[in-house]
Amino acid sequence: MIKHKHQIIIVGAGIAGLSAALEAAQAGNDVAVVSKVTPLHSHSVAAQGGTAAALGNMEPDSWEWHFYDTVKGSDFLGDQDAQALFCKEAIETAYFLEHIGVPFSRGENGRILQRHFGGHYSEFGKGPYIKRSCLAADRIGQAILYTLWGQCLRLQVKFYKEFLVTHILLQDEGCSGVIAWDIVRGEMHIFQGKLTLLATGGCARLFKISTNSSINTGDGMGMVLAAGLPLEDMEFIQFHPTGLYPWGFLISEGVRGEGGYLLNQDGERFMKIYAPAKLELAPRDVVSRAIQGEIRAGRGIRGKPYVYLDITHLEDQLIREKLPQIRQMVLKFAGIDPKKQPIPVAPTAHYTMGGIPININCEVLADGKKTIVPRLFAAGECACVSIHGANRLGTNSTMECAVFGRRAGKYMAKIAKKVNFLPLPQGQIKERLGEINTLLNRTPKTSLAEVREALEEGMTKNCGILRDESSLKNQLELIHQLKTAYQEIGLKGMPKEYNLALQEVLELKHMLNLSEAIVRCALARKESRGAHYRNDFPHRDDKNWLKHTLVFIEDEKYKLDYKPVVITRFEPEERQF
Ligand SMILES: Cc1cc2nc3c(=O)[nH]c(=O)nc-3n(C[C@H](O)[C@H](O)[C@H](O)COP(=O)(O)OP(=O)(O)OC[C@H]3O[C@@H](n4cnc5c(N)ncnc54)[C@H](O)[C@@H]3O)c2cc1C
Q1: Whose CA is nearest to atom 50 of ligand 1?
Q2: Ligand 1 center to residue 197 CA distance, Å?
Q3: CATH of the domain at 527
Q4: Where along the chain is substrate bound (predicted)?
Q5: CB of residue 48 inside a 6 A radius of ligand 1
Q6: pLDDT confidence of residue 577
Q7: Which atom of ligand 1 is nearest to the CA of 380?
Q8: Is 36 contained in some domain?
Q9: CA 381 to chain centroid
Q10: Would you give the DSSP letter of residue 130?
Q11: Which residue numbers are catalytic?
């Protein structure tokens, strides 16, 4: 076993992790970033459209309008103290990113270029769409991630890549670091830190059809759950309407923005039934539900679970100039020229609104409410502060990662000065090493791939865009069967070095626990709000459900608790489109 000691340990090298690393290192700390992939392969690199900040470069804007849109977008489940702070700090953070060298696209006056995105309006929702999304062509994630990475290297942040963190080391005095498996060399490592930050991204890979990278298995959330700590609002998973079937790769809203139609088996523009005024440009949750409704009614193409996104009526030149990446992707993966044939699409799991409950300093909350876990922090998509509530607005996520990643880094830098290293809990370390050895010595009776596939298929089918009591109960039963099957997965005879099956087995354990948490939260919430839609309870119910869900495991049993939503300014109102 190999030990490493750094003042600050950051798990995750996406926009959240690297923003924190940069701030903490800038303040003079010795910072280590541990990532299961090479940093530049973190999912942040895939972000396309832009990052939100009310800069007002193109037309007048205000952080308060952004605040209102974020509250309404969240279907009134976000905490308004955090949302207000986010919208204010987004402006300063956009300039910070500009100053460290993010290559934003520029307008004629040399300022950062901004564009329209769904849900962002002017004048407290009463005015027209507003250009609030700062862009770097259609590669905002890459632009931000690469810049942050370069800055971290300059400040000598130490990177440990291809290390799978499996557990957080937790004792009464707080977190003393993490345990990780060196994927390449097949060894156990201990990372001891005064303070630890989880920035491990979302869990939309629990679903078979997903826009997320295969690495987005929600490990950080899984580790928190395994440690007996709560997760917040896990029933809220965002489904993007148009993923390329059957893979689920993201086909941007821009395609419909340019005039694309959605068609069913009968060649009918079915959105006219579901959203007569906004048609294909209705909000994401509405369009996703419409597509799913068509598929369930047997009107998917040739009875299969997809519909068509048709742009054959658009000019070839427009497709090539305005949608070049999409055209390339569709050509490359589906072998379809979108000028000649419609694109097969289906809703796809996209984003995790819930996560590890934190306060505005990114301290993890032990009871999900006020009490903090000393020395443990979280930021980015794995955390829930809560900005997005029941539904995230496009482009608010990368900005949340930058705003709260930076806040975490600065706050940790302050605390690190005042505390010493905790002794390591040797018992826990031994136990964890034992678990890995058991896996490596067990003769397999069940196939790893089959369990993972069954889980993902079940999550998409039973806990997807449309849910009800019976589908959720079916999924719960399936998860219990798969948990039993999991005990029979073995890796006997396999080498320790570069054993990707071992990585998958370790991820799968968290995936099973997380899925059960999501299903139990969804089963309990008897209303429809934002991305959580119950066929059997189709309306929002503020009287009973204007509250955050907390889920945790105690004595091997799942327990639920609730806490109020923070409302400082905007009272809940009906969302109309
Ligand atoms: C296709 C796509 C397009 C998007 N477009 C936009 C957009 O235009 N605008 C926008 O605002 N948002 C967009 N989003 C959402 C946004 O990109 C993400 O929410 C955000 O980038 C998440 O960043 P993060 O830092 O929290 O985590 P990630 O970037 O997901 O990084 C997670 C990190 O954690 C590490 N990690 C995870 N588990 C472990 C473990 N067990 N051990 C060690 N390391 C671990 C990974 O290696 C990785 O480095 C998009 C998302 C997708 C999928």
Answers
A1: 47
A2: 15
A3: 1.20.58.100
A4: 240, 252, 350, 392
A5: yes
A6: 59
A7: 26
A8: no
A9: 4
A10: -
A11: 284
